[in-house]
Amino acid sequence: METDVYAKNCPSRQVLDRIGDAWSVLIVSSLKDGSLRYTELAQRINGVSPKMLTQTLRGLERDGIVTRTVHAVVPPRVDYALTTLGRSLLGLCNALQDWAELHIGDVLDAREAYDSRP
Amino acid sequence: METDVYAKNCPSRQVLDRIGDAWSVLIVSSLKDGSLRYTELAQRINGVSPKMLTQTLRGLERDGIVTRTVHAVVPPRVDYALTTLGRSLLGLCNALQDWAELHIGDVLDAREAYDSRP
DNA sequence: CGGCATCCCCCGGGATACTG
DNA sequence: CAGTATCCCGGGGGATGCCG
Hints:
Two copies of one chain form a homodimer. Chain A has one domain (11-115): Winged helix-like DNA-binding domain superfamily/Winged helix DNA-binding domain (Arc Repressor Mutant, subunit A), CATH 1.10.10.
């Protein structure tokens, strides 16, 4: 198959969009040690609205990156976990966060220098 | 410094946003072999509007990831190149694209399966 | 050639309230 | 508890037109 991310209509662009989505990255990273419930994800990921959490989880499920397991109990319980495909993303997500935490200082310095220019 | 990407107001979130931006990834990758002119970038990156190209380049420059060099000639010539900080991103960008090109098939299959479910 | 500036539209996404 | 439904707003981002 022809996969050129520079091409406008290449589906790999959509993959970039998904991975690029900040919520996706945070969700995948949160699930690295095992499954979590909906509420646990919501607490863990500071600032995500229920709408975006659900929406992103549905997208990840559709893309075969997470599984959604409903337990028939009261109160309801829904677990989310990574698939094999999802686990293959962990290295990337970790690298992303590592870079961010390692170079955030440089970036902030560069911004300050840029903004204080005539 | 406290760097927790799960925290709402952590600046590393902004780094995630920048790297997550599809245009940023494509620009950084395009510059891996050396500097390019504005028009060359526009041609290389299919589907980007002038506005977004300029805007993204400004953001990358502000964040210390690319340099912008204006040559005083007619017609004008502006070269963009990666900084050291920008070059440190190359591994990440390549990994991102590699993953996309490697797993795009799995993702598309998962989507089809998901969409054709009752 | 390499941009800003402006207009304008559309929808991403937050807040809130309600259900199985 | 785990969502859906609804409303609503800001701004992302395309198109177009003008400068140095």
